[in-house]
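Hello forum,

I keep getting stuck at the same step: I have a sequence, I want structure tokens, and every attempt I make locally crashes halfway through. Rather than fight my setup again tonight, could one of you with a working pipeline run this one for me? It's a single chain of 340 residues.
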Amino acid sequence: MLTESFSAQTGRPYINVQPEPQFRHGSDDAKGLRLEPKWRHLDLESDAAEDVVVSRWVDGRSSSRWEAAARPADRYVVGIALKTTRLKLTSGRQIIFDGIMPAGTLHVTAPARQLSAEFYAPCDFLHFHISADYLRRHRDATDPDLAETSLNDLILLRDSFAEQLGKTLIKHGNADYRDFTRCIGQALAMHLARLKLPRARVNALPKWRLRRVEDYVDAHLHRRVSLPDLARAANLSRMHFAAQFRTATGYRPREYLLHRRIERAKHILSTTEMPLAEVALAVGFCTQAHFSTVFKRITGETPARWRSGNRMASVLSQQLPLKSNIGAFGLETSDAARLG
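Reply #2:
Ran it on my machine without issues. Output:
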């Protein structure tokens, strides 16, 4: 049983996960999280009566590739990035996003909206296919003024609650746990129903300025980086830079910087034996304690535990037969080749 609650201390939402009931295994009726054969392509005819259908798209390739999304006429598609990736999202001739998309980024596509993507790095997305009527009813019940606003547009933002929902589904769910998966999807739909988007629109940071900021950050992760430093890299004032950067990425500059530091730390932890104290300094943290605190807040694990788990997963993937790895998520051989 999953419920959305609010912390009395922080005022922020969190997820309360009760022990899951016993689910049936092996039947199509019990299937929950589905694997997409192509990006955002899913046969929803058998699930037409479902208010929310959840699917996952995983692509381990690093080469550039282009994908066009299916355009369901009666469903919103809500995407949550499970890992940091680099891509460009476009709708017609409009560029929605172009750059590094950090883990936890949420984007909403309205029914029948055209969307295409060019991927430049491995990616992992959860997609929630939510009935337009279902979402509209919840928005109307929450606040009638919300029913006709905002979600008809593509939005891109950082949302900690949506990110936590995605992590909960991957950590506690299972491809066969249909009820649990539906519960997660409904929690996200109810969260979106309460979402109030800002009325004032700020132009997004142009992609060439964004690329300059990304390059500056990656080149200076080992040292202190301030907001004025980033604004100078974009050749803008601090005020204009901060607002445009958040519109373009969904992140405040400081949040983005911390996530980039942690992504660099993950690479070091998984490819070297560097001591944690040295890893902390290499990615711009003054102390190992601060590094460990931020790392656990973003990933849910301490650096030492993450390194141990990542190393164990690597060993197991080398030892187990390919067919066993495929069977863990119910993939066909062709899907395994695509995951890389």
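The domain at 207-315 is CATH 1.10.10.60 (Arc Repressor Mutant, subunit A). If your local run keeps crashing, start a new thread with the error log.
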